[in-house]
Amino acid sequence: MKIFENRDENGNLCSFEVPNWKLSRRRVVRIVAKIPGVVVIRRPKRLLSWFREEIFCEFEINGVKFQIDEPFGDNSRFWVGKYGGGWCRELELVRQAFSEAW
Asked: Which among 61, 74, 75, 88 counts the fewest CB atoms within 10 Å?
């Protein structure tokens, strides 16, 4: 699976995107939930999640909060990053989980 990385001027991973035509919202949450130490705070609602929720997953690793969203509800990619943006070690773990899932 192609992962689109968003890096800062120092080359640190700040967020990444995965194509949503390869992954459903529920599959994305399942990938995240398998990461050791993850606590899933919010999952997509069952009915019409894609229509009602731009941010459809929230989770935490080592006290760092992350979100997964689909900008505008009809984007071709899901965005994965921490609240407030920026690099953190835990984001590398999340990216690795998506890399290994496909």
From this structure: 74
Tokens of 91: 């984001």
Q: Read off the tokens for 42.
A: 């919010």
Residue partners of 33: CB distance under 8 A and separation at least 6: 40, 59
DSSP strand pairing (4-7 vs 64-69): unpaired
| Contact indicator for 57, 42 with CB cutoff of 8 Å | yes
Pairing state of beta strands 55-61 and 64-69? antiparallel
Sheet holding 38-42, edge to edge: 4-7, 13-19, 77-82, 64-69, 55-61, 38-42
Q: Count CB-CB contacts under 10 A for residue 64.
A: 15
Do residues 35 and 29 touch, judged by C-beta distance below 8 A? no
| Interaxial angle between packed helices 25-33 and 89-101, expressed in degrees from 0 to 180 and rounded to the nearest 10 | 120
| pLDDT tens per residue, range 49-80 | 555 578 889 999 999 999 999 887 668 899 99
